[in-house]
Amino acid sequence: MVLFLLPLLSHSADNDPLQDFCVGNLAASPSLNGFPCKSASSVTSDDFFFDGLSKEGNTNNTFGAGVTPTNVLAFLGLNTLGISMNRVDFAPGGVNPPHSHPRSTESRIVIKGNLLVGFVAIDNKFYSKVLTRGQMIVIPRGLVHFQQNVGKGKALAFTAFNSQLPGAVVLPKTIFAANPSIPEEVLVITQFWG
């Protein structure tokens, strides 16, 4: 029986990297776990540097929130490393609408302001907390969550993901901007769920 379980145990975590790095080559098609590697002879120090998180995001939009993603598509040095980050800026009252990350757990730390952060578990239990500067929360992979600036001034948070490309399913966009549209009668019927 033990010999039968050994192969299962050996596949229960991510594989150890077989190389120091694999700076992504966006010109090539993505492979199973990222992009093919840029030629090692063409890798430079700049491939491991990204300054996009130093710039305030645009909050002049419907939600009053600006997300600066730093995934493998923006920062090729992250390719195959299994990590990424976002900077999220909030205007007063701004909201990062309900969304989920299908490929990643999220951890969030508040740098400035007061953020109401909440998520809903599969059993529909709602967990929430108002976070202030220096406080952190973890949101399990795939669960629907949101953030709202409940302070008087701007707010800023950084998120970290255990995926180079966590993906984002933004519920309002997914439901109301689907192409082609979700049939209206389906949306009307489902509003009475539960």
From TrEMBL:
Mn(2+) binds at residues 99, 101, 106, 145. Oxalate binds at residues 86, 96, 101, 106. Disulfide bonds join 22-37. CDD domains: cupin_OxOx (cd02241). Residues 1-15 form the signal peptide. One of its GO terms (biological process) is regulation of root development. InterPro entries: Cupin_1, Germin, RmlC-like_jellyroll, RmlC_Cupin_sf. Residues 51-188 form the Cupin type-1 domain. GO terms for molecular function: manganese ion binding. The keyword Amino-acid biosynthesis does not apply. It is found in: Secreted, Extracellular space, Apoplast. SUPFAM superfamilies: RmlC-like cupins. Keywords: Apoplast, Disulfide bond, Glycoprotein, Manganese, Metal-binding, Secreted, Signal. One of its GO terms (cellular component) is plasmodesma. It comes from the Eukaryota. Belongs to the germin family. This is Germin-like protein. It comes from Rubroshorea leprosula.
